[in-house]
Every structure is written in structure tokens, then in C-alpha cells.
């Protein structure tokens, strides 16, 4: 509790400074905080970082309605589906909107046992000009909970969702509501218009008011849950839509090179672009068949990323709709120097009266015969209805305009974030409620709560001597330029004289180090992370670092990669934090003259000795992190005998003896597949090479880690053969790691990494590295 005095100071600080310059960061899109509503509930519930606010309070304007609770709550039902709001007469849920644009609107339905009986409900749901659902009831629900999703253009300050129960049952219900702004230009304005007879024309000024999501497919991969998606979408696997299943095999490669001007992770998450279906030899095309409404107009979005080719500019094919219209696909139109660059096409397609739509990929004669597809979305354009809003006379007018939780700082923040970089003057009363959490390199970190209940982390510079100010400025400079799922994001900051405060997203689960071997100061309450969880954390952090090194801004060296700078959110998604020491290799010419900075135990020997600072210094530190994750001990522990003190040295000595398993975390003993461990050891060893030039790049590390995870996961599935490594290559149902074109040479068994019969994975990794695409940059 040594930090308690800061707690009070901090609140005062906010009051006194009046934060005349709490600067807000303009940045790319992130998923907004509102509206996520837990209908009929008193309590909030968080899904994937977004809090569904219980609406049983006067801040919500939900018209004439009541709330009901599940009378037989079972522990495995999400709290979202244990309560509902019911309407026994026509009435409306009102939301206050603060920007015009395209919104994602999701309505959640789950009929739980209650009184009145929700299974008897029958109702319409509409907005000002559209009927969203008509004659809707549980008979329409094939699986429960049922989530109906729309893209809706909202223009105005008020958004109403009208519930109209049928006169027979007088009952309507809703369990949860999501209404949030989609990324800018989410719906293109110029698209090709395709008719069933195959004619196409350019459609400019395409401005649909309402789209209903009909299909959202992750081709070549598994179902993706809402938790795995950047916009809380659900993607399903494509297998059931294939006309001829044998015509295609799944392909996987764990790299996505997002490019400016192309899709982002919000267009579709990495997991969609990392998998594809690829045409098999002896087949002439892959065709998927989707049920759609007859004679309706659809927006069809097809996602591609060339994870298939082994060299550039060799593959072209056609995308065909209804077998009549075809469109040339050239994966290098967007970036001819890189593979695995995501791109998408949108088409407005009129359906015929068959009730389905065929989508195919078809090879060109003079090209490699490996057309592929990564994802498909089909959305139906809804027509305006002649619906007339019900009279609102029975309602108390003032209630209509009650704002939903909008006074909280964060809402204002978001509004401004959308507009751009602006100064915002906080009212003295808009304080944060803070408590001390954890020390960090350049200041204390506090846990804070904004008035809307959103938790944030607050970092304050050491008061008094202005220590650490350059690091704070550095951090603001870096974080205001970049935004990535695996980098902690800055929400705002306050800069006043020698005082500085940074406000970050709150990372519920704290540091990675804490989860590996507890608090260094004693209380060792560590959680027991499984090997898969640890690998996923490593993959997340490697993704974040890869982005720093090569992303939009690029050339940023973190310089202080360590397990206390890797933070975990409530779902154990890892994010890299603390950019106070980071350097941009392109801009900063002073490197080498400023003295060595970083943390002992993690320092790149080359940098330490020669002041040679490159991205490879981060790779070295990350190698130490990998060992820490495996062995669950600190990078440097002076209490140990000399040869064990430095984890990098100690770990490497065991790795070189081929006995790394002797020093792993006792909790993991017997739980790691030997091949997975071997590959992991090799990856760490490569990162820890003395010379930067011998170390892999971060995306190579990322690729290896994904392979390590795959080895572990497939090991689980081949349990009966667990001990006979010699059976390995033929037994693993691996997704295709890399497909070679038919005319390329010498690797047999092209779909499966080869392990030699004694199970030694040198062979495997050699083969694997042959399969790796040479980076063309
Ligand atoms: C939405 O657009 C209308 C007209 O285009 C404008 O009057 C209104 O102020 C806009 N609302 C917001 C929140 O920008
Ligand atoms: C609720 O209604 C459904 C459909 O009408 C019926 O099958 C079910 O038995 C009812 N449940 C109760 C508890 O009355
Ligand atoms: C509904 O349609 C009418 C007429 O087309 C239009 O004036 C009005 O702005 C629309 N309302 C909304 C909320 O889009
Ligand atoms: C629900 O089912 C009924 C009858 O099967 C149908 O008329 C209605 O359009 C369906 N509603 C929705 C929203 O699918
Ligand atoms: C929004 O509404 C205003 C009038 O209410 C209209 O002038 C404007 O064109 C609308 N904007 C869009 C994008 O529909
Ligand atoms: C629901 O919508 C359908 C079709 O739009 C309409 O025929 C029906 O009368 C509506 N029901 C109610 C209760 O408004
Ligand atoms: C859409 O097409 C129109 C005319 O065909 C053109 O002026 C406009 O620049 C295009 N917009 C985009 C975003 O390509
Ligand atoms: C129609 O599609 C073909 C490709 O199949 C393309 O070459 C042509 O330019 C398109 N026409 C229009 C008007 O978009
Ligand atoms: C594709 O998958 C099938 C089994 O579904 C397998 O027999 C075949 O070897 C795979 N590869 C190719 C190139 O067909
Ligand atoms: C493709 O066809 C040839 C000849 O018909 C056959 O020998 C070969 O086994 C087939 N390949 C696959 C993968 O089915
Ligand atoms: C796909 O191949 C089948 C035969 O296997 C053929 O009937 C169909 O026309 C092809 N579709 C396209 C779009 O080429
Ligand atoms: C309602 O909003 C006010 C002002 O934003 C806030 O102080 C209060 O805590 C909110 N009430 C609930 C129950 O969320």
C-alpha cells in the first residue's frame, strides 16, 4: 500500500489541473464502446472487451416495457441470455446517436423459461423506414441464442427500434442489443452490378440504407466465434456449402500482410485471411452454393489473401457468380511485391428465382491451377417498408430524450476521436476514481474508472523532478501513430508542465510475468497457464512486435521487450506495452550516442557491445521471453548459482544439449508434445543468436510459433499414436501448410511437413523452411 498517497494526489491533480490539455488521439477505427445493452438486467456483462450495460435504470429509454429473468438459470448460459425486456404493447427503444454513418445493428433473442412464456411471443421489429423482422417468434429460431444482424445507415440524432407485438399474443421480447458505428467506407459506393444472366455494369453512388447479413463464411477454416472477431461477428466454416467437397482442400498460412488502402483487421480478422480452400488437381473449379431470397438484391463480398503461391505473380483465376458472370482475380493487383496481402471485391448481385446463389473460383488455362478463396459474406438489401410508427402518446415525452450513459468521459472522447485530434477541456468534476496498481519503469500505474464504469489504466510520471518526461513524450508520439490489437492503446493523456498522465485501455489480467511465476515481491499467486495458452500469448506478442517493425509506420524498435511489458486482457489476449524507450529507426539518427537502454537479462549482446540497434535487438529480447514462458523463472535471478543466473545462457546450454525439457516449468511437465517443444526450443535458440543477422525476423518467429502451436494441437488429436513419432507425418490431419504448384520440384508429400523416422525434427524444420516463401521485400 506504499502507493496509497498517490491515489489521493492523483484525484487532486485532475481537479487542480483541470486538464486543460487532455489531448485525444486521432487514429484509425477501433470498435466503439456503445451501444452494447444487456436488456432487462441490473448488471453489466463484458464480451471481448465490450461491456453490455444492464438497462434497468433510468438512463435508458426503452418505452413501455418490463424486464423478466430466467427462472431456471443454468450456469452455462451467458448472463446476456438470462434476462430480457418484454413489450406487451407497441413501444420503442430509443437511442441517442452522435454521428451519422453506417451502423452495425444486432438483435439477440433467446427464449428462456419465464412468465410470461417467451416462446409464445410473436412480433415485428422495425426502425423508422424499415421492417427488420416480421412475424417473428421462436419458430423462426433454429438455434438459440439467435442473433440477427444488419448494416443500417443512420442519419439523425435519434434511433428508435420499434417493437410491435401481434394482437393475438401481445408479447415481444429482446435479450440484448448492439448498435455501433462501422468502420468508415465499410460499404463501398462504387460496385459492379451483376445479374443472373451474367451482365455486369458499374453501379456508382451505391447507398443501401439497410442490409441484412445472410451468410458470413470463413473459407478453409473453422467457425470463428464472436470473441475471435474484431467486430464481434460470427463466421462459419464453408464445408457445408461446397457443391463437390473433394474439389478443394483447406490451406493455412499464419501470415497476413495488411496493406494501406486494402482491407484491415476490421474488414475481416486475420483468422479469415490465414485460411483458404484451394482447388484440387483433377477438378475444374470449386463451387459453393448459398441459399438466398428469390429475386432479391444482395451485396456479395469475397475475401482473398494469397497464402497459396510459392512465388509472386504466377497465379491468376476467375471468380464466377451463377456460372455466367466472371471476374478476373489477380492477387498482385494491390501489391506486386508481397504474398499474403488481403484484398476483397464487392458485387451487387440480383438473385434469380432458384433460391440459391453459386459462387465459384475457376483457373485460367495459362496460369497455375490453384485458385482459392478465403471468405465470403452475403448481405441482402432490404426494401423500405410502408410501416407507420405507432403513436407514442402514451409515453412520457421527457423519457424519450434521456441519454444513455452519455455523460461519461469516454463517450465524449469517442466522439472527438472520430472527428480528429482536438483539445478537450475536462470539467473539474469529471474525475477518475483511481487506485494504485503496479509500478512501472517511468511512473506509477493506477487502475481508474471512468464515470461510465469503463476501467482504464492511468500512468503518472514521477512527480517533482520531471523524471521520465522524455519517455512519456516518446510513448505519446509512438502510440498516437499506431493502433493494433496486440499493442496496448492509449485513450488520452494530460500534459501539464512537468506533470504528465497517460490513460490507457485497462488490461484486466495484468502482466505476463505475474502469470508465469507470480509477483516478484512475494505473493506468488500465479495462474497455471496451459502450453497452448502460453503459445497464443507468444503469438499475440510476436504479432504486435512484427507490426511495430513492419506495419504502417514501420521501423519502430521497442527496445524493452520483457514479460512485464506484455499485458493480458480479460480473455488472455496479449498486448505489448510501454513504448517509452522505443525508437524509430528511420527518423532517429542519434542511436548509439545516447547510451544503452533496456532491461538487464533481455539485452541484445550486440547492442550492448557495439551500440548496434536494430529490430533484431527486439528479437533477442523476445527469445528471452520465450524461455521465460517455458521455464517460468526470471530472466535474471541473482539468488541462483552463477551458471543459472542468466536465463538466456542457462536455457541455451540445455537447448544445445537437446535437453531443454529438463528445465521447463514443472507445471508443464508431461503436457507438451515433444515435437512442439523441440520446435519451440529451436525458435528461442535462433532468436538468441549472438549476431542480429543470424536471428530470424519477427514474422519468421511468428510463423514458427504458429507451427509450434499447430504441432501441439494436432498432437492432441492423434493421442493413440502419441509415443510413436514415426507415424507422425501420415497421421496428422494438418491443414495444408503450404501448397506447391504442380510443376514445382522435389518435395513429395507436398501437403504435410515431413518428419524423419527417428522423429528428429531437423528434417521437419528443413522441409518446413523450404516451404517458406522467400520474403520478397
Ligand atoms: C447528420 O447529418 C445531418 C444532415 O446531413 C445533420 O443535420 C446532422 O447534424 C448530422 N448529425 C451528426 C451527429 O453529425
Ligand atoms: C411455452 O410455450 C410453448 C409454445 O407455446 C410451449 O410449448 C411450452 O410448453 C410453454 N411453456 C410453459 C412453461 O408454459
Ligand atoms: C425515412 O424516409 C423518409 C422518406 O423517404 C425520409 O424523409 C426520412 O429521412 C427517412 N428516415 C430516416 C430515419 O432515414
Ligand atoms: C418467421 O416465420 C414465419 C412463418 O414461418 C414467417 O412468415 C416470417 O417471415 C418469419 N420471420 C422472420 C423474421 O424470419
Ligand atoms: C441526412 O438527412 C438530411 C436531412 O434530414 C439529408 O439532407 C441528407 O442528405 C441525409 N444524408 C444522408 C447521407 O442520407
Ligand atoms: C408485422 O409485419 C407484417 C408484414 O410487414 C404485417 O403484415 C403485420 O401486420 C405486422 N404485424 C403487426 C402486429 O404490426
Ligand atoms: C465512383 O464513381 C464515380 C463516377 O463513376 C467517380 O466520380 C467516383 O470518384 C467514384 N468513387 C470512388 C470512391 O471510386
Ligand atoms: C464486366 O466484366 C468484365 C469481366 O468479366 C469486365 O472486363 C468488364 O469491364 C465489365 N464491365 C463493366 C461495365 O463493368
Ligand atoms: C486433399 O485432401 C484429400 C482428402 O480429403 C487428400 O487425400 C489429398 O491428398 C489432399 N491433397 C490433394 C492435393 O488433393
Ligand atoms: C487424378 O487423375 C489421374 C488420372 O485420371 C489419377 O491417376 C490421379 O490419381 C488423380 N489424382 C487425384 C488426386 O485424384
Ligand atoms: C465447375 O465444374 C463443373 C464440372 O465439374 C461444371 O459443370 C461447372 O460448369 C463449372 N463451373 C464453372 C463456373 O466453371
Ligand atoms: C446514469 O447516468 C448518470 C450520469 O451519466 C450516472 O451518474 C449514473 O451512474 C448512471 N446510472 C446508472 C445506473 O448507470
From TrEMBL:
Residues 431-710 form the Protein kinase domain. GO terms for cellular component: membrane. It holds the Pfam family Malectin_like. It is a single-pass type I membrane protein. One of its GO terms (molecular function) is ATP binding. It is found in: Membrane. Residues 758-768 have a biased composition (Polar residues). SMART domains: S_TKc (SM00220). Residues 752-777 are annotated as: Disordered. Residues 1-28 form the signal peptide. Keywords: ATP-binding, Glycoprotein, Kinase, Membrane, Nucleotide-binding, Serine/threonine-protein kinase, Signal, Transferase, Transmembrane, Transmembrane helix. Its main location: membrane. SUPFAM superfamilies: Protein kinase-like (PK-like). The chain crosses the membrane at residues 400-421. InterPro entries: Kinase-like_dom_sf (IPR011009), Malectin-like_Carb-bd_dom (IPR024788), Prot_kinase_dom (IPR000719), Ser-Thr/Tyr_kinase_cat_dom (IPR001245), Ser/Thr_kinase_AS (IPR008271). This is Protein kinase domain-containing protein. It comes from Liquidambar formosana.
Amino acid at each position: 500500500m506504499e502507493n496509497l498517497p498517490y491515489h489521493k494526489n492523483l484525484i487532486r491533480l485532475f481537479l487542480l489541473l483541470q486538464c486543460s490539455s487532455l489531448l485525444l488521439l486521432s487514429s484509425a477505427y477501433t470498435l466503439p464502446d456503445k451501444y452494447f445493452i444487456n436488456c432487462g438486467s441490473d448488471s453489466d456483462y463484458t464480451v471481448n472487451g465490450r461491456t453490455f450495460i444492464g438497462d434497468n435504470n433510468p438512463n435508458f429509454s426503452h418505452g413501455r416495457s418490463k424486464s423478466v429473468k430466467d427462472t431456471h438459470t443454468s450456469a452455462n448460459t451467458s448472463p446476456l441470455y438470462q434476462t430480457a425486456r418484454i413489450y406487451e404493447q407497441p413501444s420503442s427503444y430509443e437511442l441517442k446517436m452522435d454521428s451519422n454513418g453506417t451502423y452495425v445493428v444486432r438483435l439477440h433473442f433467446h427464449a428462456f423459461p419465464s412468465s410470461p412464456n417467451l416462446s409464445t411471443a410473436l412480433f415485428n421489429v422495425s426502425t423508422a423506414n424499415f421492417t427488420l423482422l416480421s412475424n417473428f417468434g421462436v419458430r423462426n429460431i433454429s438455434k438459440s441464442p439467435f442473433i440477427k444482424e444488419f448494416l443500417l445507415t443512420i442519419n439523425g440524432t435519434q434511433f428508435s427500434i420499434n417493437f410491435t407485438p401481434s394482437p393475438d399474443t401481445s408479447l415481444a421480447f429482446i435479450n440484448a442489443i448492439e448498435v455501433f458505428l462501422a468502420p468508415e467506407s465499410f460499404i463501398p459506393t462504387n460496385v459492379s452490378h451483376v445479374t443472373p444472366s451474367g451482365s455486369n455494369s458499374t453501379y456508382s453512388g451505391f447507398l443501401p440504407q439497410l442490409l441484412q447479413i445472410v451468410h458470413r463464411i470463413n473459407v478453409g477454416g473453422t467457425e470463428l466465434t464472436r470473441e475471435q472477431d474484431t467486430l464481434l461477428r460470427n463466421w462459419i466454416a464453408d464445408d457445408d456449402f461446397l457443391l463437390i467437397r473433394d474439389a478443394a482442400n483447406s490451406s493455412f498460412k499464419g501470415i497476413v500482410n495488411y496493406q494501406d488502402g486494402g482491407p484491415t483487421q476490421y474488414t475481416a480478422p486475420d483468422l479469415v485471411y490465414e485460411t483458404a480452400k484451394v482447388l484440387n488437381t483433377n477438378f475444374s473449379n470449386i463451387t459453393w452454393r448459398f441459399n438466398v431470397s428469390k429475386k432479391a438484391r444482395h451485396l456479395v463480398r469475397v475475401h482473398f489473401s494469397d497464402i497459396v503461391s510459392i512465388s509472386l505473380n504466377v497465379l491468376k483465376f476467375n471468380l464466377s457468380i451463377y456460372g455466367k458472370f466472371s471476374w478476373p482475380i489477380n492477387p498482385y493487383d494491390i501489391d506486386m511485391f508481397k504474398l499474403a496481402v488481403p484484398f476483397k471485391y464487392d458485387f451487387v448481385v440480383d438473385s434469380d428465382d432458384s433460391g440459391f446463389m453459386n459462387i465459384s473460383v475457376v483457373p485460367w488455362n495459362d496460369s497455375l491451377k490453384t485458385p482459392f478463396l478465403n471468405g465470403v459474406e452475403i448481405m441482402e438489401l432490404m426494401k423500405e417498408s410502408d410501416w407507420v410508427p405507432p403513436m407514442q402518446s402514451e409515453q412520457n415525452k421527457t423519457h424519450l430524450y434521456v441519454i444513455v450513459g452519455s455523460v461519461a468521459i469516454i463517450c465524449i472522447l469517442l466522439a472527438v476521436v472520430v472527428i480528429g485530434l482536438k483539445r478537450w477541456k475536462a470539467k473539474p468534476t469529471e474525475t477518475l476514481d483511481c487506485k494504485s496498481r503496479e509500478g512501472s519503469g517511468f511512473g506509477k500505474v493506477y487502475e481508474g474508472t471512468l464515470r461510465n464504469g469503463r476501467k482504464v489504466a492511468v500512468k503518472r510520471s514521477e512527480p517533482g523532478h520531471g523524471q521520465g518526461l522524455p519517455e512519456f513524450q516518446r510513448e505519446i508520439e509512438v502510440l498516437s501513430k499506431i493502433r493494433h490489437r496486440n499493442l496496448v492503446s492509449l485513450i488520452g493523456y494530460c500534459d501539464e508542465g512537468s506533470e504528465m498522465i497517460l490513460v490507457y485501455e485497462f488490461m484486466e489480467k495484468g502482466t505476463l510475468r505475474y502469470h508465469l511465476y507470480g509477483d516478484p515481491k512475494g505473493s506468488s499467486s500465479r495462474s497455471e497457464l496451459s502450453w497452448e495458452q502460453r503459445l497464443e500469448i507468444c503469438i499475440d506478442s510476436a504479432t504486435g512486435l512484427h507490426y511495430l517493425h513492419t506495419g504502417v509506420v514501420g521501423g519502430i524498435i521497442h527496445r524493452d521487450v520483457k514479460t512485464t511489458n506484455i499485458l493480458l486482457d480479460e480473455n488472455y489476449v496479449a498486448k505489448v506495452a510501454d513504448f517509452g524507450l522505443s525508437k524509430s529507426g528511420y527518423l532517429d539518427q542519434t542511436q548509439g550516442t545516447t547510451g544503452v537502454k533496456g532491461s538487464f537479462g533481455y539485452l541484445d549482446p550486440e547492442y550492448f557491445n557495439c551500440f548496434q540497434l536494430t529490430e533484431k535487438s527486439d528479437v533477442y529480447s523476445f527469445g528471452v521471453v520465450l524461455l521465460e514462458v517455458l521455464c517460468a523463472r526470471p530472466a535474471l535471478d541473482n539468488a541462483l548459482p552463477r551458471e543459472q543466473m542468466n536465463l538466456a545462457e542457462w536455457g541455451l546450454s540445455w537447448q544445445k544439449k537437446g535437453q531443454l525439457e529438463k528445465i521447463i516449468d514443472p507445471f508443464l511437465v508431461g503436457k507438451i508434445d515433444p515435437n512442439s517443444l523441440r520446435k519451440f526450443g529451436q525458435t528461442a535458440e535462433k532468436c538468441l543468436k549472438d549476431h542480429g543477422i543470424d536471428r530470424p525476423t519477427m514474422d519468421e518467429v511468428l510463423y514458427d510459433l504458429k507451427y509450434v502451436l499447430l504441432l501441439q494441437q494436432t498432437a492432441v488429436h492423434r493421442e493413440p499414436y502419441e509415443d510413436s513419432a514415426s507415424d507422425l507425418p501420415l497421421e496428422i490431419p494438418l491443414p495444408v501448410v503450404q501448397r506447391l504448384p504442380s510443376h514445382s520440384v522435389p518435395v513429395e508429400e507436398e501437403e504435410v511437413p515431413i518428419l524423419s523416422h527417428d522423429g528428429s525434427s531437423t528434417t521437419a524444420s528443413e522441409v518446413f523452411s523450404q516451404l517458406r516463401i522467400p520474403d520478397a521485400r
